[in-house]
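ok so dumb question maybe but i'm new to this and my supervisor (M.) told me to 'just get the structure for DUF429 domain-containing protein' and walked off. so i did the thing. is this what she meant?? sequence i used:
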Amino acid sequence: MVGEKARREAGVVPRFDHFVAIDWSGAATERPGGIAMAVAHGEDGAPVLVDPGPNAGKKGGWSREDVLAILRDELPADTLVGLDLGISLPHADCGAFFPGWADSPPDARSLWAMIDRICAGDPHLSASSFVDHPELSAFYRRHNGREGARFHAPGAVHRRGRFRVTEERQAALGCSPYSNFNLVGAAQVGKSSLTGMRVLHRLDGRIPIWPIDPLPPSGSVIVEIYTAIPAIAAGRRAGTSKIRSHEELRQALSALGSAAPAGTGLVDDHSADALLSAAWLRIAAQDDRLWNPPGLDAVASTEGWTFGAP
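this is what came out, is it supposed to look like this??
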């Protein structure tokens, strides 16, 4: 493999000094317990958790507004940020995000703007208004058995809802992705994705979001990640990808060639996901193939992609 310095000199991939991974949550509360942020610096060293600081208040933890503020105003230069959420919705399968609806937006950025507009009155950058929309709710699987008539694509071969192209590729890796239109169960990713898209819209173009935006030769970039992919890269099976002890975390980080933060005993899976993903981003960013997966160009502006999906 060509070394990072040679890659930078050749202009093959951008040069990143910091690697940040953020485990996300779509819960409709000010400080969801599921948000965790970790950073890995340079070419070595253990990844570390980022403390939300004094803004966390008595309840502790990150708010989505806190994360937005860091991404917009406090991010170190030349940082690769991985967000564990879907940056868009399925489009290629039906030729539209919301087929048959006259106001279906044409691309991902228009989708983000529409979501933020519809949810303008929802506190904490939550997204309840979008999934309860009288027309858009037909595309979602919601709680209490409320599955919209448009949740599945015509001729669907599985019951997990509509997939983006990148989710089909995730499945080929052995992952078990669920549709971004799914709001039910432990595997639901719908509200996480919608709240994340509100944040992306409010960044207002300050940071390129790959592959919605072209990959720049320098500067910071945001990518979508799926934390099962770093776990698989560290030798764990997709079905048992969650890490819940410092011992397991140390083994997984070692498999990625990374030192581990100090600690023993239990660790919450959100923190572990962020720590492992930050270390994985540090090595994955050097792989040209991950920036150029087959078929990307056809869906880049509409569906986006999960960094690391083949």
